[in-house]
Amino acid sequence: MGEVFIDSAEALIQSIKQHSCGFDEGARIAVINAAAHSFFRTLDAVMIQSFFPRYADLKKNGFSAASSIEGQGEFECGVIFAAKDQKRNLYDLSLLMASVRNGGMIALVSPNGLGGRSFMKNARLVLSGAEEFFKRKNRILIAKNDKEFLNSDFYDKYRSFGDLKEIGNSMFTRAGVFSSKKIDNGSKLLIETVKNEPIRGAAADFGSGNGYLSYELLKRFNDIRSISLFEADYNALEVSKTNIKDKRADFIWSDITTLERDRKFDVIISNPPFHSGAEADISLGKRFISSAYNVLKKDGVFYVVANRELPYEKIVRTLFNRQITMVEKDGYKVFKAIRS
């Protein structure tokens, strides 16, 4: 559990105690963007976490966890630990409001610097009797889910942020999913670069996002027998199921950095993430490269795109004794690496 979440959880606990607002022991509570914390063991908490590594950590620590709040029934109260994407936060708020009983309490928590002021301002338009607190470098809002107070125009607007939106090439996405405004330029360069490569057999897409890379490969390469989309973000994986209807595709919610080595692939394609939450994490991309090496067949090929300044060359050369930089263009570079 990260230090930022610990501070956010402690700030929430202090505010709840100060407010005496109904987050009572044993209360059934939904916690969106949750991580393991002992406080939630005192409640009947359903920990909502769409990011697989954190979901797995919750399950490992004995919490009741779910990938989505939808279908989880009614709650007495709820919490949102804000994410970076403000539209996703407001969409999550609309889902939480639909799940919390009339008159139940809702708490919103946002670390400083993550757009909390805007989130709280918009939340006040649909929640009643809001009180704000500032603790441990966090902004906290606690308010009532009051159906009589509800401004349906704003609520409907927030709910619409979860709608699928077309971004070109017959591809759809939604708020909170990587590259939610357009198809990522790095991904487009990767597809353009490999278009004449002999791609066939069992393929995999590491960190598949909304499915763009897999969609293009399936459209262009008839000799692909199957393609496995590995994605840690449950919401992104659900979007990819909308974008790809090809029966050769398999959708897997997982942590690619802990992938079992018994699965083997002829080709792997990837545009790895280099952020963990709001913070840059170059090691994440390096772990993607290492995982790809572990599950490639002999003579299997790995294609990966990265921002030009990211230092991936050393790990690519260390693992793969056959590798080239196929192109450097517009701030990106594409590697081709072959496992001997």
How would you summarize this macromolecular structure in one to three sentences?
The chain has 10 helices and 18 strands. By secondary structure, it is α/β, with parallel strands linked by helices.
Structure description:
The protein contains 10 helices and 18 strands. With 340 residues, the protein is α/β, with parallel strands linked by helices. Helix 3 (86-99) packs across helix 5 and helix 6 (185-194) packs parallel to helix 7. The protein has a 7-stranded mixed beta sheet. Strands 12-11-10-13-16-18-17 form a 7-stranded mixed beta sheet. The protein has a two-stranded antiparallel ribbon with strand order 8-9. The model is unreliable at 275-279 (pLDDT under 50). Helices cover 31% and strands 32% of the residues. The longest helix has 17 residues, at 3-19. It starts with a helix and ends with a strand.
CATH architecture of the largest domain: 3-Layer(aba) Sandwich
Q: What oligomeric state do these chains adopt?
A: single chain
The number of strands is: 18
CATH structural fold name of the largest domain:
Rossmann fold
Number of domains: 2
CA-CA gap between termini: 38 Å
Series of H and E elements? HEEHEEHEHEEHEEHEHEHEEEEHEHEE
The level 1 CATH classification of the largest domain is Alpha Beta
Give the low-confidence spans: 275-279
Biggest sheet, in brief?
7 strands, mixed
- Average pLDDT, rounded to a whole number, is 91
With strands numbered from the N-terminus, the spatial order across the biggest sheet is 3-2-1-4-5-7-6
* SSE class: alpha/beta
Our estimate of the beta-strand percent is 25-35%
Percent helix range: 25-40%
Counted by DSSP, the helix tally is 10
* Overall outline: elongated
Radius of gyration: 22 Å
Q: What is the CATH H-level superfamily of the largest domain?
A: Vaccinia Virus protein VP39
